[in-house]
Automatic annotation (TrEMBL):
Gene3D superfamilies: NADP-dependent oxidoreductase domain (3.20.20.100). Keywords: NADP, Oxidoreductase. Residues 15-314 form the NADP-dependent oxidoreductase domain. One of its GO terms (molecular function) is oxidoreductase activity. InterPro entries: AKR, K_chnl_volt-dep_bsu_KCNAB-rel, NAD(P)_OxRdtase_dom_sf, NADP_OxRdtase_dom. Pfam families: Aldo_ket_red. Belongs to the shaker potassium channel beta subunit family. SUPFAM superfamilies: NAD(P)-linked oxidoreductase. This is Aldo/keto reductase.
Length: 336
């Protein structure tokens, strides 16, 4: 495993980070989830990402149980706050001081730890003053419940405003967690340049485009049984934007490129996002331990510039570049 600094902080994280969105507490039974976490530890992954909303808090509990007995100082644990949790009451979502303060305590209890290394705003809250949100985060850092602060799916302008307030308050806003893959590059024109300027690193989710970049989905064919595209609990909705024959046909043309580099399609996809020097880590999930062991082989891979250009030519105009998509795909009001 190779390690990278998270933004301009002194915190090093494993460049492949284990995430349990859509798996722990929902798609994957607890015993298998624990096996996946232990497989991640065995291959050198030390960074683990979750959120209170995943499986309505159950994912945090599963991760906390799976990490029982590990040396806390050797791990980097990340979680997030924003989306509705619990019964979905009127203060059970957003980035108000009330919700943040209550949520961090619940997350720490479920994760069985005194602190998280990174506490992230899971989306931007249009209904709470940013000053209130950042002051609450600052108080959590000063209380020792979080070491650093991050955001997820914020626009470049929102990141700049949040970073300015964090600097005034003397806390480290050091990370952004956006979707990023060969097929979804909306952060490249605005978020990445702003982040480079501010010393913020990306922890990117869905580097394999929810499985599309593995090549297992074939144009003109039904999705494989048990795949994410057949998951009625949420996976099918997330993957739907890529499930058209034009995208799937282009993806199939990546197979010879992966073969030439002696990588699987999934490894190629993960290695591709890690070529971006503003990316601190790629998030990978798993429903089986062997998936962890395979994905981690992308660590340390250097893809030649000519091959990166070849990938661009193969995918062509099916790639989404529009930076406005960060705003378009984010909630415009607090969810309930």
């Amino acid at each position: 495993m190779e390690f990278r600094y998270l933004g301009n902080s002194g915190l090093k994280i494993s460049e492949i980070t284990y995430g349990n969105w859509l798996t722990h507490g929902s798609q994957v039974e607890n015993e298998v989830a624990t096996q996946c976490v232990h497989a991640a530890l065995d291959v050198g992954i030390t960074s683990f990402d979750t959120a209170d909303v995943y499986a309505n808090t159950r994912a945090e509990s599963v991760l906390g149980d799976a990490l029982t007995g590990q040396r806390r100082e050797s791990l980097e644990i990340f979680t997030k706050v924003y989306w509705p949790t619990g019964p979905g009451g009127h203060n059970d979502s957003g980035l108000s001081r009330k919700h943040i303060m209550e949520s961090i305590n619940g997350s720490l209890r479920r994760l069985q730890t005194d602190y998280v290394d990174l506490y992230q705003a899971h989306r931007y809250d249009t209904e709470t003053p940013l000053e209130e949100t950042m002051q609450a985060f600052a108080d959590i850092v000063r209380q020792g419940k979080a070491l650093y602060i991050g955001v997820s799916e914020w626009t470049a302008g929102q990141i700049r405003a949040g970073h300015a307030l964090a600097t005034e308050l003397g806390i480290g806003l050091i990370s952004s967690q956006p979707q990023y893959s060969m097929l979804w590059r909306v952060i490249e024109d605005e978020v990445v340049p702003a982040s480079r300027e501010l010393g913020i690193g990306q922890i990117v989710w869905s580097p394999v485009a929810q499985g599309v970049l593995t090549g297992k989905y074939k144009p003109g064919q039904a999705p494989p049984a048990g795949s994410r595209a057949t998951d009625a609990k949420g996976g099918a909705d997330m993957i739907s934007r890529f499930m058209n024959d034009d995208v799937l046909a282009r993806v199939q043309k990546l197979q010879p490129i992966a073969d030439e580099l002696e990588l699987s399609m999934a490894q190629l996809a993960v290695a591709w996002v890690l070529q971006n020097d503003n990316v601190s880590a790629a998030l990978v999930g798993a429903s089986r331990p062997e998936q962890v062991r395979e994905n981690v082989k992308a660590t340390g891979v250097k893809i030649p510039h000519a091959v990166l250009q070849q990938i661009d030519e193969v995918l062509g105009d099916v790639v989404e570049h529009d930076s406005e998509m960060t705003s378009v795909t984010s909630p415009h009001k607090r969810p309930s």
